[in-house]
Amino acid sequence: MAEQHETIDEQAAEWILRLHEEGFSEGLRQDFEHWKRQSPQHAAAALRMQDVINRLQALREQSVPAKAALNAAFAGRKAVTRRKQALRALLIAGCLALPATLLLKSQYPEQWMADISTGPNDWKTQRLADNSTITLSGTSALNLRFDAQERRIELLQGEVLIEVAHDSTRPFVVQTAQGSMRALGTRFVVKRQGDTTVLTMLQSRVAAQSANEQQTLEVAAGSRALIHRDAVELAGSISPASINQAWERHQLVVENQPLPEVLDEISRHRRGLLQFDRAALANLRVSAVLPLDDTDRALQLIADTLPLQINTYTPWLIVISQLQPAKK
Amino acid sequence: MSSGEPSYQAAITELYCAHHGWLFGWLRRKLGCAHNAADLAHDTFARILNARESVATLREPRAFLSTTARRLIIDQVRRKQIENAYLQELALTAEALEGFQSPEQILTTLEALEQIAFILEGMQEKARQAFVLYYLDGLTQSDIARQLGLSDRTVRKYLIQALLHCSHSLDT
Prior knowledge:
Family (chain B): Belongs to the sigma-70 factor family. ECF subfamily.
GO molecular function (chain B): DNA binding; sigma factor activity
Helix content of chain B: over 70%
Shape of chain A: globular
Domain RNA polymerase sigma-70 region (chain B): 15-81
Largest sheet of chain B: none
Radius of gyration of chain A: 26 Å
Oligomer: heterodimer
Distance between the termini of chain A: 71 Å
CATH topology of the largest domain in chain A: Jelly Rolls
Largest sheet of chain A: 7 strands, mixed
GO biological process, one term (chain B): DNA-templated transcription initiation
Low-confidence stretches of chain B: none
Strand content of chain A: 25-35%
Structural class of chain B: mainly alpha
Helix content of chain A: 25-40%
Keywords (chain B): Sigma factor, Transcription, Transcription regulation
Shape of chain B: globular
Number of helices of chain B: 8
Number of domains of chain B: 3
Strand content of chain B: under 5%
Order of helices and strands of chain B: HHHHHHHH
C-alpha cells in the first residue's frame, strides 16, 4: 500500500518534469490528463506538486527578493541541532499515564524548551541556574546548553548582555555561527550583526575563537572585537560605564557609526518594518544616544540631525530615504 | 488553572494517544529524519501543554497539530529572517519602494514565502536550490548544473526528489 503510494508520487514527479521540459505539447498534456484520471490518488499527487510550483512561480516578478528570503530561511539551519531526548522520553511515558506533575507545573524549565527569545519591544533579564544573569534586548533568541562540563549559550539572533557567575570548574561559552567566547567569570555583551559577531567586554576578559578554530584572541575589558568565521580582530575601545548605563536605560549608544547599522539596530526593537536603501545611506554617520524603547523618537532624533526623509505608510511600514539636495 | 484539572489531562492524553503516531509519521516523511521528527512531534505537544491550549473541543485535531508544528518549524526568529532578507532586497531596488509594492502586497508575499519555506523544510539543500532556480528563476537544467557544479543528470534527479518532497510535505 505504502509502496503503491510512493510509485504514484514518483510517476507524478516524472510527468510534471517532462511537461516542463518538453514545453507542454498537446499530446503529452492529454496523456498526463489520462494518467491523472486513473485514481483520486493520482490526481491528488499531481495537484500537490503543481501547487508548490505555482506558489514559486507566482513570485517570479520579484524573484530576487523572494530568493533572498528563502535563502535566509534556510541559512545556518544545520548549526542548530535539536536535543530533547529527556523530555521526549517523559512524554512517551506520558501516553500511558501522563505525569500530573508535568501538567501542574506553572511553566516548563526554560532550558527544556531550549529557546529564550524576545519580541521587538521586549527586554528580558533572566537569572540562570548557575546564578549567571543574561539580559536580551529586542528580537533576540538563544539556546541554553548547560551540563556538568560547561555552561553553553547559543546566540541565534540579536544581542545579549551576560554577567557570568564564577565557576572555575565549568567554563561559560557563548557560541554563534561565527565563533565562540569562553569565560570563567566576567561581564560582556555579544551581538549578532549580519555575518559578524560583535563582542564588547565590560569586565575582566574572555578568549574569543573563530568558528574555523584558526584564530583565538584574548579580549580585555574596554575592548570590542569582531568575530568572523575565519578571524578575530580588535575593533577599538569602548567605555564600559556608558554601555552599562545604556543597557539599564534601554539606550543605543553609537559613535560615528554608519547609519544603516544604526537603523538595523532600531529595526530590531520595533514591530513593523523599516525600509531603507543600504547603499544610498551608507555614507551617513551617526553619533548619538538613542532610546530603544521609543523607536519613533529615536528615528526622529536621527532625522533632526541628518538629511533624511521618513515616510510612514502604516504604523508597521516606514521608509527612510535621503533628502535630495534640491528642495522640492 | 483549570488546565491542571483531570479533565484537561484526560483530553491531552487522548489527543496524544490518538494522534501522536500520525503527527510523527507525517513529520518523519516531511523532514526525512526520524530524530528531528520525534523531537518536533514532542515539542508540538509540549507547546500545547505549555500554552494551556484548550484541546477538549477540537473539531480538527490534526489540522491543529500540524499548524502548531508549522509554527515551531518557522518560528519567530526565522519569520524575522525571511522578512528582513526580503525587505532588504526589495529596498535595494529602490524604485520599487514607492507605489509598486503596497504594504498589503508585501504582507501577502511574506506570508506566501513563509508557507513555501515550511513546505521546503527538510528538503536536501542542493535539491532545494535546484528546485528554486528551476521554478522561481526559470533557469534551464543545464544552467542550474553549471551554477551548482553538478551534472545535468544529477540536477534532474534533485528536481524529482524535490517534487516528491513537496508531495509528502502537503500530504496530511
